[in-house]
Amino acid sequence: MNAKKKGLAPVAGFRFVGLAAGIKKKAGALDLGAIVADHPVPTAAVFTRNRVKAAPVRLAARRLRNLQARAVLVNAGNANAATGPAGEDAALRTTALFAEALGCAEGDVIPCSTGVIGHVLPIEPFERAMPELVAALGEDATTFSQAILTTDKGPKVAERTFRAQRRDYRVLAIGKGAGMIHPNMATTLAFAVTDAPLEGTALRAVLRAATDATFNAISVDGDTSTNDTIVLMASGKAGGKPLTGPGERAFEAALTEALGEVAQAIVADGEGAEHVARIQVEGLRSTKDARKIAETIATSMLVKTAMHGCDPNWGRLLAAAGRAGVSFDPDQAEVTIGDVAIFRDGATLLDAATEKRAAAVMKRPRYSITLRLGGGPGTAHYDTCDLGHAYVTLNADYRT
Amino acid sequence: MNAKKKGLAPVAGFRFVGLAAGIKKKAGALDLGAIVADHPVPTAAVFTRNRVKAAPVRLAARRLRNLQARAVLVNAGNANAATGPAGEDAALRTTALFAEALGCAEGDVIPCSTGVIGHVLPIEPFERAMPELVAALGEDATTFSQAILTTDKGPKVAERTFRAQRRDYRVLAIGKGAGMIHPNMATTLAFAVTDAPLEGTALRAVLRAATDATFNAISVDGDTSTNDTIVLMASGKAGGKPLTGPGERAFEAALTEALGEVAQAIVADGEGAEHVARIQVEGLRSTKDARKIAETIATSMLVKTAMHGCDPNWGRLLAAAGRAGVSFDPDQAEVTIGDVAIFRDGATLLDAATEKRAAAVMKRPRYSITLRLGGGPGTAHYDTCDLGHAYVTLNADYRT
Q1: Rounded mean pLDDT of A87-105?
Q2: Residues B78, B253: contact at Cβ < 8 Å?
Q3: CATH 3.60.70.12 domain range(s) in chain A
Q4: Is the pLDDT of residue A330 over 70?
Q5: Residue B181 scores a pLDDT above 80
Q6: Is B10 touching A (CB cutoff 8 A)?
Q7: Yes or no, beta carbons of B346 and A51 under 8 Å apart
Q8: Which of residues 308-367 of A touch B (CB under 8 A)?
Q9: Interface contact flag, B301 A387, Cβ < 8 Å
Q10: pLDDT for B182
Q11: The whole model's pTM is what?
Q12: Closest alpha carbon within chain A to B307
């Protein structure tokens, strides 16, 4: 959705801001944003599993051990990654500045950074921007959704409502990312806020489940960044008791939908991507097995180039499935593209007419590829995009 | 080396042949070859770990359980993969034809196929070619080295001699493969013969070690094929007792060198490849850890596109290392390209002059990238090539 045109409906208990602080090279580019709760609220986060973690990721993880925060401070244009002790210091100082301006504890400000790697985050832009950053806080998250972008084509926002305890609750999810597509401009960031009441431990459990079903099931190029972070905050302002049981599950469903929409927008924004395919894998012994195969197919360069060429290449799909390290019987495999079956019982079904129909499906911006590999209960999916010349052009460019 | 011009020196106890049987579409293209020993000799093989194995791979694995064979029958142009029971039958029938023509047991003929997937291997070209295939057998392996190629730019041959038991022994290695680069034209095949005497079990152990150090440490695009096979035969014709101890190790060294040369030629032949880099990883707790990191870097699309752009992008190298699932301290990391250090003690060393020097190294056809990630004893290497537009063009082409 286009956040610019219509603005975003508020979520009770949260204010947002986004402005141009001069962190990005381009003059006037929005590059600093914040989400601020009225007071410290239950907050959970998931972080990159990469062993090389940026300074803000390490600081955020430490600060969120108590599952509580007042604010998230996000900058684009500089990832503050691989910056050693000076980077740690910069993360501490910039969040201290914001805590002072807000009048809250430093430990209640969560830092997120995205942008170029290997340069220590400069403090000065934060010092200069701080008065405006607090003064401009408002209910509309639109400028925030713009200020966190790097190589993205546009903002990525999704809204959901869900019902529990006879109330309507709201979920707002905002993300950025287009794969690790541009030299050193890595990172997926996502932020979700809700006016529902939840305790920190429930929040963490729901976020992990929702992340597994969404952000952990997408691939642009298989690389993970030093800064990937998803933060979830719950103000409880819409009233009621902390959600558990069916209410918690309703929240999880709404959050999964919202994060899923943002994640899909990130895959579709992969540079050079013209097609997004959902790799659906079924019939394995376990979900874990199905997931391994789906991920291997989704990150195969040969599958992704075949997608680019709209080539219903079942050989590459099966060969990728075969090297996932999971046991299955290829002679029982069934491969379907959209609604066109192209392989069954150990042999291809492709004749000229079928091939034409399958290729037509692959010309669509979105379609599914389904591999049924046995009779087991394990299923999983993984969203991926095609690999085209634009990816090579962008990523082979000399670092700027 | 160019096998065409000067011919290949014989290896006592083996004859070779390569001819045009009409399996490939292109008229007159060499596409059928064989290696024949004077009688059944110790033979070992390693096969693709892909769960989707072609019919010839399954048959070859069964027949080599006794570690003995008389001949290898290799065709290019058709992989006989994903062909179900009809494919099994074709593998059986074609090898039976050759066994009959040679006058040996069917079980002593090892089939290898490479080419398009999903089409049952036709028998007729084999029937027609059989008299000539046997009649044309000779000591020079040149036509054989040509007949096994698919999208390769040229033959890949390496020769070594080694000394043991006061004798000079010869090793000849012949391979094909250019990554899974062309639609459905997959597969790495390699064949090595020696006139040294070895028992089957020793042969198998030596082949596994040599393969791990060579073919299992190269990557064009991270995909493995349904048909990958390496066969090693020992005639013993140069005399002496079966090699053990130091003699066996001398053979392993020579075989590793020969297979290494063929493997490097395959990486350099990756379509669109302009650069081959040896990813050298050092200082880990174990070889296994070092290998995991080397492999993750070598198959990273972001690293491979940075190679294409001659970009000394340490951020991508470290980020790829970081997601390999191995523990190391990034603040102790040291990254060197050729002899140019670009990252040390958690910070980049790149200034304009250093960057220029590192980029100059990356313009070479071959260079090394070394990551020292701690003080441990674990080291490993992995050879990889750059990812350029030619790869996308070739692989996104509609299947022909």
Answers
A1: 97
A2: no
A3: 3-268
A4: yes
A5: no
A6: no
A7: no
A8: 308-311, 313-316, 318-324, 326-328, 330-331, 343, 345-348, 350, 359
A9: yes
A10: 40
A11: 0.80
A12: A396
Whether the per-residue pLDDT at A398 is higher than 50: the answer is: no
Region B254-281: mean pLDDT is 90
Residue range A123-149: mean pLDDT, rounded: 98
**ipTM of the shown complex:** 0.77
Q: Report the pLDDT value the prediction gives residue B222, as an integer from 0 to 100.
A: 60
Give the pLDDT of residue A331. Answer: 85
Contact criterion met (CB < 8 Å) for A313 and B399: yes
> Of these residues, B43, B94, B143, B187, which one is catalytic?
B187
- Of A214-223, B53-62, B238-247, the one with minimum mean pLDDT is A214-223
pLDDT of B150 strictly over 60 = yes
In chain A, residues with a C-beta closer than 8 Å to the C-beta of B47 are none
Active site residue A187: yes
A15: closest CA of chain B, how far (Å)? 34
- CB pair distance less than 8 Å for B392 and A392: yes
B51–A322: do the CB atoms touch at under 8 Å? Answer: yes
> What CATH class has B276-396?
alpha beta
Closest Cα of chain A to B83: distance in Å?
6
Tell me where in chain B the CATH 3.10.20.340 domain(s) lie. Answer: 276-396
3-state secondary structure chain B: CCHHHHCCCCCCCEEEEEECCCCCCCCCCCCEEEEEEEEEEEEEEEECCCCCCCHHHHHHHHHHHHCEEEEEEEEEEECCCCCHHHHHHHHHHHHHHHHHHHCCCHHHEEEEEEEECCCCCCCHHHHHHHHHHHHCCECCCHHHHHHCCCCCCCCEEEEEEEEECCEEEEEEEEEECCCCCECCECCCEEEEEECCCCCHHHHHHHHHHHHHHCHHHEECCCCCCCCCEEEEEECCCCCCCCCCHHHHHHHHHHHHHHHHHHHHHHHHCCCCCCCEEEEEEEEECCHHHHHHHHHHHHCCHHHHHHHHCCCCCHHHHHHHHHCCCCCCCHHHCEEEECCEEEEECCEECCCHHHHHHHHHHHCCCEEEEEEECCCCCEEEEEEEECCCHHHHHHHHCCCC
Asked whether the beta carbons of residue B323 and residue A395 sit closer than 8 angstroms, the reply is: no
Q: Judge whether residue A140 has pLDDT over 50.
A: yes
Q: Is residue B52 less than 8 Å (CB to CB) from chain A?
A: yes
Tell me the C-alpha distance between A94 and A92, whole Å. 6
From A184, A308, A395, residue closest to B396, measured CB to CB = A308
pLDDT tens, position by position, A356-379: 999 999 999 999 999 999 999 999
Is B196 in contact with B242 (CB distance < 8 Å)?
no
Of B316, B322, B388, the CB nearest to A392: B388
Q: Which residues of A touch B362 (CB under 8 A)?
A: none
Beta-sheet pairing, A218-219 with A378-385: parallel
pLDDT of residue B163: 97
Res. B155 pLDDT band, cuts 50 70 90: very high
Pairs of residues, one from chain A and one from chain B, whose beta carbons lie less than 8 Å apart:
211
| Least Cα separation, residue A145 to chain B (angstroms) | 26
Mean of the pLDDT values across residues A194-221? 91
Mean pLDDT (chain A, rounded): 91
Instruction: Write down the mean pLDDT value for chain B.
Output: 91
Q: Does A225 contact B at CB distance below 8 Å?
A: yes
Q: Is the pLDDT of residue B120 over 80?
A: yes
Choices 3.90.550.10, 3.30.420.40, 3.60.70.12, 3.90.1720.10: CATH for A3-268: 3.60.70.12
Residue B398's pLDDT is 41
